[in-house]
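Quick one: Multiple sugar transport system permease protein from Halanaerobium salsuginis, structure tokens please.
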Amino acid sequence: MKNRKLYFKYIFLILFTIFMLYPMFWLFFSSVKPNNEIFTGIRLIPKGTWQWENYINGWSALPQHTFGTFFKNSFFVVILVVIGTIFSTTMAGYAFARLNFPFKKILFAILLGTLMLPQQVLMIPRYVLFSRFGWINSYLPLVVPAIAAQFAGGFFIYLMVQFIRGIPREIDEAARIDGCGYFAIFWYVILPNTKPAIFSVGLFAFMWSWNDFLNQLLYINDVGKFTVPLGLRLFLDNTAAVSWGSLFAMSLLALLPSITLFFFAQRYFVEGIATTGVKG
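--- reply ---
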């Protein structure tokens, strides 16, 4: 009886997994189909020859820039955003979790209040501010907020605060007896013990920055500076026929970095989310 229930559980999990992965299967098979087969039915596998040239045509769809340029630009922005986000949120989380300073509780309450503020409300003020700085058509509006712990609001700071609160304070006191100051405690004690949370923050920052379309559309105008989301948008030209196969091929390639990163870092990611939820 127990084996029968176990079999049913496995069958249910397999079917549910296939159901959840169906969009990925559809995207892959559509990337090797001609345009006239993609939206004509529910059949996944192409009827005729697999159109692998969709990947070649999609990679060099633009006359002046290949998709390699967009990938290079995206990696440049994402790496800076991830580094800046990890640096700023870990220091801010350490300050709120361990240090005592004036108006600490009030500032932390304001930080939590920013989680409820829609980002659309800040679009126009931010655009006006960055325009006056002369940052339009550059990557500064995308990178500088991450360095200032403004990327994704206070969510990452709150995550780090909750994780650091779960680290025993006795470790800090032992380090202070050995002559460590606040920064030495942060560098040699807090950071090594917050690797799961750091991986979680880095993974979230990577995925959100990699898939960010609206902010990049607002601040970047030069095609040579376009990132992958903006490059995919160039396929949707109202004045010409859309090459859906090439679009889906490049969309599938755009998913690979996030999937690969999550595959190799999933242990730290799951540990960081789980321990952050129960500590504090």
